[in-house]
Amino acid sequence: MGCSYNYTAGESVQQTEWYKGRRQSGFWTSGVWKHVALSNSPSFHNRFEYLGDRRHDCSVAIHDLWVNDTGHYHFRFDMETFHRWSQTSVYLTVTELSASVSPAGVRAGDNVTLRCETSCPHEATVWFKDGLPVARAQFQARAEDSGNYACALKGVESFLSDPVALDVQYPPLNVSVETSSSASGVNLTCSSAANPAADSYTWYRGAGSSPGPLLEVGSGPVLSLASGGGAAHAGLYYRCRASNHLGGSYSPGPLLPVTPDSTDNISLCDA
Fold first, then answer.
1. In this structure, are strands 90-92 and 71-78 parallel, antiparallel, or unpaired?
2. Are 76 and 89 in contact (CB under 8 A)?
3. What is the CATH number of domain 15-92?
4. Which residues 6+ apart lie within 8 Å of 205 measured at CB?
5. Domain named Ig-like: which ranges (predicted)?
6. Assigned CATH for 98-166
7. Rounded Cα–Cα distance for residues 230 and 253 (Å)
């Protein structure tokens, strides 16, 4: 806060001080001061900085503002034989920024609006997602938009609101199948990206070199194929479908054609 003061020529300033408080009416007096010196207040420790001097500059800085810093501020300077107060006070308003997301429940494809509210008059706000700038406050939600959002007034980006979480829900995406060997044969494991996580897995078996009618052959994230009798699996392939309450999708296909090897065991390869 910028500030200047004057006094009679030839006098010298012995001490300066800023106070928080205001003049209040008293019962027997015209008024009393209810104030606290910033340099002696624990709440302003390491946050109050006097930028002025003992001549004519009384500027002051208060760092890392808190809501409780709201109030009236006065300046006082002491001469050799008397002291003077600033004729008026400056009123500082500190308001918290409040970030919100609308709607509360978001699915992929929904229109999302980020709102930043404050009692201070302002022209523009800026947004950050997980610490990185956000281009727009209105957008169509995608899976990758999930995260923590905070807003700030443009020009004072170091003062952020408390973060608000955006949780974008979406059906399973990028469904894939991985294979692994076991003592009894081969395991096929189905996985996907989904929010909430996929809670249903269904396995299907097809025949031939191109997708055709599929037969449901199992459920759960892992399908086990027993070793031995590989000839019975010749020309077959497997696909899985991962689902949650928002929908489901299949692994690519045809996938993992099954062929017998020389020992009549199961052999898998990507199609």
1. antiparallel
2. no
3. 2.60.40.10
4. 214, 215, 217, 236, 237, 238
5. 95-161, 171-259
6. 2.60.40.10
7. 21
Q: Where in the chain is the domain with CATH 2.60.40.10?
A: 15-92, 98-166, 170-268
Tokens of 86: 């600033």
Interatomic CA distance for residues 167 and 244, integer angstroms: 16
pLDDT one-digit tens code per residue, 29-51: 445 667 889 998 999 999 999 99
Which pLDDT tens digit goes with each residue over 130-148? 999 999 999 999 999 999 9
Which of helix, strand or coil describes residue 67?
Answer: helix
Characterize 168-183 residue by residue with b for buried, 16 or more Cβ atoms within 10 angstroms of its Cβ, and e for exposed.
bbbbbeebebeeeeee
Q: Rg of the chain over CA atoms, in angstroms?
A: 35
Top-tier CATH class for 170-268: mainly beta
DSSP structure string for 208-267: SSS----EEEEESSEEEEESS-GGGGTTEEEEEEEEETTEEEEPPSS---EEE-TTS-EE
Q: Are 126 and 149 in contact, with CB atoms under 8 Å apart?
A: no
Q: Of 268, 269, 239, nearest to 254 (Cα)?
A: 239
**Reported pTM:** 0.65
Token duo for residue 259: 């062929």
pLDDT at 151 over 90: yes
